[in-house]
């Protein structure tokens, strides 16, 4: 998957999660979870765009680490939404799978970049 395809994939994730947040029932916890979901999921794509503009290998690794953290945080909020019975797990299973796949690709990229950095290639 190239950078443009990954940008599109992360953007699509944020849009889908935005629709989920809009559909949550009206309650204090749903409002908080929804806002956090929107923030973290949109941050995945926004920070990946920053990765694509990194000025060095070290800069790229640092920015990609933020993407990893935001994707993991998105999973956390999705878990809270289901565990608080706001949305059935089956309804958001695909969103959780997609977020996990994005997280896995980011982790794999970080491993590759760290190996490259340890070899002194910058």
From TrEMBL:
PANTHER family documented for this protein: FOUR HELIX BUNDLE PROTEIN
Pfam families to which the protein is assigned, alphabetical: 23S_rRNA_IVP (PF05635)
Superkingdom of this protein's organism: Bacteria
Protein name: Four helix bundle protein
